[in-house]
Each structure stands twice: as structure tokens, then as C-alpha cells.
Amino acid sequence: MTKEKPSQPQLPPTSAIESSSNRAFDSWFAYPLRVQPHHTDYAGVVWHGSYIAWMEEARIECLRSIGINYADLVALGCDLPVVELSVRYHRSIHLGTTVVVKTRMADVTGVRINWDYAIVSTDGQELYVTAKVTLVALDRDRGKIMRHLPPSVKDALAKISALHNN
């Protein structure tokens, strides 16, 4: 009787990543980019922190695509800092590769705004990264978390939700 080798250990999925991984990526905002040398380590593999910058760029471009300039939100006295971040790295990306960072606003609960992300190959066949980010509305003048989203911010987020949930 031969004993099979145990399979390589697998990380248990987190609930944040599990929910992102199981969704179809067709209703998301797509932000294409090509991996540049400054995104990588000496071996030409994307440095893990680059993915986080790409996600922020995609979120800002998603807002801009529907006419919401992030600077305008800041001018309203509302900042949206990241308070929670969960990232699952599925496979590495190499220098020169073109990928698509997909993002969508998952939900808004009070002053918490949740975004989902998937970084995929341009043909959608390879999944490189999934992530979930939570932002909170912060009153810039007082430096404190707001009790309620300002009406203009709430309206802007409703516009995103309507576009991406259709």
C-alpha cells in the first residue's frame, strides 16, 4: 500500500476574500495597467505593496469616470481614509505584463464604505489578487469620524452603486 504525499498546505480563505472570489467580475470598473520596473523587485516580480497603490488608483478612476473628482470630496471637508484592508495574493505578476484592476463599491454601512477588488489578466483567465478595502468618512477639520455621510457624498456613492449594480 503506498501512501499519497499530502497536498501542499492551503491557507483557509478569509470571509472578505471568499466573497470577492466567488463573484462574477462583469459589473466592475476596469482599470488596465502595464507592470513597470518601479512596481517590481529585482527579480521582476511585482512587489506586494504595488497592488495596494493600484487598487487606490482604480478606486479614484472609478469615481472620476462618473464625474466625481476625489479632490472635490476633500474640498467638501470629507476625507476617506482606509481603516481595513484584506488582500489575497493568488499568483505573482511579472514585469511587462498587462493586467486589469477591477473594482466596485460593495456596500455602504453608515460612514463605512466597502470596496471589492480583483486583479486579473486582460483576457480574464488568470486571477492574481483579490482584496477588500473599508474606508470611513472623516471630518477633515475636526479630524474625527463623521456620524453621517454628507448628503453630497451620499449622493455620489448612490450614483456609483446604481451604475455598478445594474
TrEMBL record:
Membrane-spanning residues where? none
Write the record's keywords in alphabetical order, separated by commas.
Answer: Hydrolase
Q: Does the keyword Hydrolase apply?
A: yes
Question: Pfam family example for this protein?
Answer: 4HBT_2
Classification via NCBIfam families: YbgC/FadM family acyl-CoA thioesterase
Full protein name: Acyl-CoA thioesterase
Example GO molecular function term?
A: fatty acyl-CoA hydrolase activity
Source species of the chain: Mojavia pulchra JT2-VF2
Per its UniProt record, what InterPro entries does this chain match?
4-hydroxybenzoyl-CoA_TE, HB-CoA_thioesterase_AS, HotDog_dom_sf, YbgC/YbaW
State the superkingdom: Bacteria
Could you say which protein family the record assigns here? Belongs to the 4-hydroxybenzoyl-CoA thioesterase family.
Keyword Lipoprotein included in the entry's annotation: no
